[in-house]
Task: inverse folding
């Protein structure tokens, strides 16, 4: 798999984790009580890690990532059976191993895609 694609997967995962921490106060309180963590400190640690990963992205990818993350929620989506799971439009795909060698975006919704066999 393309290394930039792997970075994006990790960034998106941490981003969603951080959003969940900040947006679900009930869950946060429960987690804080159960695991003795400070949700704000945890969110800050995630942000730091996200910034670190972003610095490893190629500049155009990073730019797109910074524009896309807040507005799209998920900026990287799977393509299953030739269908983009960001916008549910079918897109032509070659073999998944070949497709994932390069970082690609859906021409319809602009999200980065990775192809599942
Ligand atoms: Zn799409």
Result:
């Amino acid at each position: 798999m393309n290394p930039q694609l792997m970075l994006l997967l990790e960034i998106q995962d941490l981003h969603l984790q951080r959003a969940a921490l900040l947006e679900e106060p009930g869950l946060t309180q429960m987690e804080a009580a159960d695991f003795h963590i400070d949700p704000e400190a945890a969110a800050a640690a995630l942000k730091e890690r996200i910034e670190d990963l972003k610095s490893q992205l190629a500049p155009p990818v990073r730019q797109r990532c910074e524009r896309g993350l807040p507005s799209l929620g998920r900026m990287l989506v799977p393509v299953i059976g030739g269908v983009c799971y960001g916008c549910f439009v079918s897109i032509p795909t070659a073999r998944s191993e070949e497709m994932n060698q390069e970082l690609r975006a859906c021409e319809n919704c602009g999200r980065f895609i990775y192809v599942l066999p």
Observations:
- The longest strand covers residues 76-80.
- Residues 84, 86-87, 89, 106, 108-109, 111 surround zinc ion (CB under 6 Å).
- The chain has five helices and four strands.
